[in-house]
Write a structure and sequence with these properties.
This protein is an alpha/beta fold. It has 2 domains: about 140 residues, Rossmann fold; about 80 residues, ACT domain (Alpha-Beta Plaits), CATH 3.30.70.260. The protein has 6 helices and 14 strands. The chain is globular and about 50 Å long. It starts with 9 loop residues before the first helix and ends with a strand. About 40% of the residues are buried.
Length: about 240
């Protein structure tokens, strides 16, 4: 290892995640209707929400895991946890597994991609919070998660192989497939290309969803409004 190479520790990554999560509070105001995403960076956001001066938020969680964290953290607050309403949310804040300079993202490492996309598409503003390791020149290297119907899942996987190598995500100790909050199966596609253009990403999102048996996929081709990036130094940047 050269002297110019930097070893990134767990503490560095934690500092980056915390910095991005805390910065997201600047985009929130009391009495907003907001979506709160999933993942480790979002958990720090939930913690900061509890300590903030914000009041009377109506919060839509994108997963059961997020809902539990919200309930535990905000039990004594004025905030209210709600289901996705028929009206638009003011803003959704979520994490990402990878994001490109065009603010497109791949999500779904935690398996909550369908609800994440539903909440994202119901929001006037969408902000991604990530540590700097998640920012990449082009998307395609991180596997694309796809939620599929359990009925006919083998056939669906066979059809998805046109996009890359497909694997059924396994649960704890590989005793069976991962079951989503919606009772679907999660599969992961290692794409043939790891250097997709913004237009290719957008088209791939649509093409995957055309496969019979597919519920939703983890490509967020519609760009976020803003990406907040936590640096390993604890500083933040954004675009």
């Amino acid at each position: 290892m050269s002297t110019r190479e930097i070893i990134i520790s767990h503490l560095d990554v934690t500092a980056a995640k915390k910095a991005a999560a805390k910065a997201a509070l600047d985009f929130l105001s009391s009495n907003m209707n907001i979506g709160v995403g999933s993942g480790t960076t979002v958990r720090y956001l939930i913690s900061y929400l509890n300590k903030s001066a914000l009041r009377n938020l109506k919060i839509v969680p994108t997963s059961l895991d997020t809902k539990i964290h919200l309930q535990n953290s905000l039990a004594k607050s004025s905030h209210q946890i709600i289901d996705l309403p028929q009206f638009d949310l003011d803003i959704t804040i979520d994490g990402a597994d990878s994001v490109n300079p065009e603010k497109q993202a791949i999500k779904g490492g935690g398996g909550a991609l369908t609800r994440e996309k539903l909440v994202r598409n119901s929001s006037i503003q969408f902000i991604l919070i990530v540590d700097e390791s998640k920012v990449v020149p082009a998307l395609g290297n991180f596997p694309v998660a796809v939620e599929i119907l359990p009925f006919g899942w083998r056939r669906t996987i066979e059809l998805l192989k046109k996009f890359g190598a497909v694997s059924l995500r396994q649960g704890t100790k590989k005793l069976g497939p991962v079951i989503s909050d919606n009772f679907g199966y999660i599969v992961d596609i290692k794409l043939f290309s790891s250097d997709l253009s913004p237009n290719e990403i957008h088209n791939l999102e649509l093409q995957i969803n055309e496969i019979p048996g597919v519920i939703e996929n983890g490509i967020f081709g519609n760009p976020a409004d803003r990406v907040i990036v936590g640096k390993f130094s604890g500083e933040i940047t954004g675009y």
